[in-house]
Write a structure and sequence with these properties.
Low-confidence stretches: 225-232
Family: Belongs to the FHY3/FAR1 family.
Structural class: mainly alpha
Order of helices and strands: EHEHHHHHHHHHHEE
Number of strands: 4
Radius of gyration: 25 Å
InterPro entries: FHY3/FAR1, MULE_transposase_dom
Keywords: Metal-binding, Nucleus, Zinc, Zinc-finger
Helix content: 40-55%
GO biological process, one term: regulation of DNA-templated transcription
Function: Putative transcription activator involved in regulating light control of development.
Strand content: 5-15%
Strand order of the largest sheet: 1-2
Number of helices: 11
Mean pLDDT: 79
């Protein structure tokens, strides 16, 4: 840190933390964990008609707004549509919009982080190595052991990826190319999410007269087989 305060900091939404950062880290950009805010949404939308649609619309406003004016317009429309003007939680969130809405914070470097979950996952990584009552000496020793284990595990994964190539899921050249760039475990994840869908989908052409000349419009949906049989 070179004895300098952090440029930005990510914490849970908490008034005491907010006050402390404002007093001690005056020039630091303070961001709230968006995940913790979203976990409260179901309770705060209680009683709203079409809850699932409202929840989906709220998330779209938060994550998909590209410019500030777009967010402002969509937020106002959402509050009015679901009659949330007198719900204090939404009012307070709007007042602190610059601390958690992505469109206000994308100008700063966050290394892809919007949630403190990443730090919580690091806590889980050290489970079994460090405990509440561990002394400082034990902490240093166990910390080194945990990092060594992680390093060796990554080396093993790298070696396995270089020596053992998985059978390609498709005959495409780019499929083979992915195996040279991804580790085996990451390739398997990618294949499960994307490549396998190539063979389990239906493609339907649309005769839409509004489509530009020379452009064809299709929709791709999951392929399914019905096992329903109707007897007499």
């Amino acid at each position: 840190m070179s004895s300098a305060p952090p440029t930005a900091i990510l914490t849970d939404q908490c008034e005491s933390i907010k006050a402390a950062i404002a007093e001690v880290l005056v020039d630091t950009i303070h961001r709230y964990c968006i995940w913790h805010i979203m976990t409260k949404l179901p309770a705060k939308l209680k009683g709203v008609w079409d809850f699932k649609i409202a929840k989906s619309e709220f998330k779209s406003i938060i994550y998909s707004s590209i410019i500030i004016n777009e967010f402002e317009e969509k937020w106002a429309g959402f509050i009015q549509k679901y009659e949330l003007q007198y719900r204090l939680w939404f009012h307070n969130l709007y007042l602190e919009k610059e601390k958690w809405i992505p469109v206000f914070l994308n100008y700063y470097f966050w290394a892809g982080m919007m949630s403190t979950q990443r730090s919580e996952s690091m806590h889980a990584f050290f489970d079994g190595y460090i405990f509440d009552r561990s002394s400082l000496k034990q902490f240093v020793k166990q910390y080194e052991l945990a990092l060594r284990f992680k390093y060796e595990k990554e080396l093993q994964a790298e070696a396995d990826s270089r020596k053992k190539h998985a059978a390609p899921y498709s005959g495409f050249d780019w499929d083979l190319q992915l195996q040279t760039h991804y580790t085996r475990s990451i390739y398997d994840v990618f294949a499960a999410e994307h490549l396998k869908r190539l063979y389990h989908c239906e493609i339907e052409r649309h005769h839409d007269f509004n489509v530009m000349e020379g452009v064809e419009k299709y929709s791709v949906t999951d392929y399914s087989i019905s096992n329903d049989f109707h007897g007499n």
